[in-house]
Structure formats: C-alpha cells, structure tokens
Design brief:
- The chain is about 10% helix and about 35% strand.
- It is mainly beta.
- The strands form 3 sheets. Strands 1, 2, 8, 11, 12, 13 and 14 form a 7-stranded mixed sheet that branches.
Length: about 230
C-alpha cells in the first residue's frame, strides 16, 4: 500500500574535492574583486551520512537487487511513520551522477515498505553530449557570477523578495562545480525537457546560495532563484 512520502529539500550541493585554486586572499574592504575562485569535483562515493546509515541503505538496495552505482546518498529515513504501528517505511534520497558529473535540481527518491522496494521518483533525462571537458575559465565563471547574481532572488511568503547585490561578493571567494541541468532551465532554450546540458554551478565558498549557472558550451549564465515554502 502506498502512503505519503517525505521529499528531501536538499539542494544542488555535494561533498566535493577542491582540485584547482587561485589566490584566495580576501579583500578587507569588500569593494574590489580579489579574483578568488576554486573548482571542485564532487564524487558520488563521498557522503555526509554515517557509515551505519550507508550500511543500512546498501542492505536495502542489495536485498532488492538494486544498484547503488552513481548515487550519492544524502538522506536516510529508516521509518517515516515511527510509533504508528504501521509497517516501517524507509526513504532514501540521493543525488544522481552521470558520466561522473552530478545532476543539479533533482533528487532520486526511493521508498521501501517493510524492507521491500515500493516506489522511486527518478529523473530519466539524458545528456545532450557525453563530453565532460570544461570549456570555461575560472575567471570567466567568477565574472559571470557577479554579472548574474542579482537574478538569484529569494522568494518567501513572509517577506519581500531579496535581491543579492554583486557588490556584496566582490571580496568573496567562490567555488565552481561542473554538472548537468535540464535544458528547460536555460534562458532562451528550445530543447525539450529530458535533455541535460553541461553547466557550472558557481556559488560563494561554503554556501549554496546565491547560485549562478553558466552553460559550459556557450558561456550563457543565469541566476537561480531560491523559493522558501
């Protein structure tokens, strides 16, 4: 019997390994661009979950003959309906990786009733190209962030929209992560839903917001709005 599910609010960011760094000395005034940006490469095997949680997930997937390959597990709820007397319903949430790159904006959700697989909510799109080489420089990605960050508006039902200012980030270090996003999110897109395009997600260091996406093939950037329920 299917019941209501708890969907994760986890965003696009992943446990990642910094592999390329520019000089990151911060400007004290915060008014001049210090050109600080780092590239990170996330690995699907890296996770913030405990080893016990990962073991439980692997047990669930193994008993149901399901692969854990290319899934970065980010949430495990062993029983959504604790203390109700109902059959335990476990939920596992993961970030999907394709060609070694993370897929942004979507979570893979798996539901198990009494240890038996019940339902999955999955993204089924495919990459426009399997090329995983980066074609934008870190300097360009940083400039695109400052150009488009004001588009990353925060919307909340209890306050006015918040528009981030580029001047607030000129003295900040940033990180850039290459991955995929569905083409429907790109400005001026004519590609139908279900096609992934390669983008860079650029954010301040140690923060998932504000975020700017930059297409790797043509350098087109746009800010990602944040909607608070």
């Amino acid at each position: 019997m299917k019941r209501g599910y708890v969907f994760s609010t986890a965003a696009l960011f992943f446990v990642a390994l910094i592999i390329q760094t520019t000089s990151c000395s911060k400007s004290g005034s915060g008014t001049s661009d210090n050109a600080c940006i780092e590239r990170v490469i996330p690995q699907y095997t890296q996770t913030a979950l405990t080893s016990g949680q990962i073991d439980s997930i692997k047990t669930l997937f193994g008993k149901n003959n399901m692969s854990t390959n290319q899934l970065q597990f980010i949430e495990y709820i062993p029983d959504i309906y604790t203390d109700t007397g109902m059959t335990p319903q476990a939920q596992v949430t993961a970030n999907l990786f394709l060609n070694g790159l993370p897929v942004f904006n979507y979570n893979e959700v798996f539901v198990f009733n009494g240890g038996v697989f019940d339902t999955a909510y999955l993204y089924t799109g495919t990459p426009l190209t399997n090329d995983t080489t980066g074609h934008q420089t870190l300097a360009y990605l940083r400039s695109s962030f400052l150009k488009h960050v004001s588009e990353s508006v925060t919307y909340s039902p209890i306050s006015k929209p918040f528009v981030p200012s580029p001047n607030s980030y000129t003295g900040s270090c940033m990180v850039a992560t290459m991955g995929y996003v569905d083409a429907v999110y790109a400005p001026g897109n004519t590609i139908p839903w279900g096609t992934l395009i390669k983008v860079w997600a650029v954010t301040p260091l140690n923060s998932g917001y504000p975020c700017v996406y930059v297409r790797d093939d043509n350098g087109v950037g746009w800010g990602v709005p944040l909607i608070i329920p």
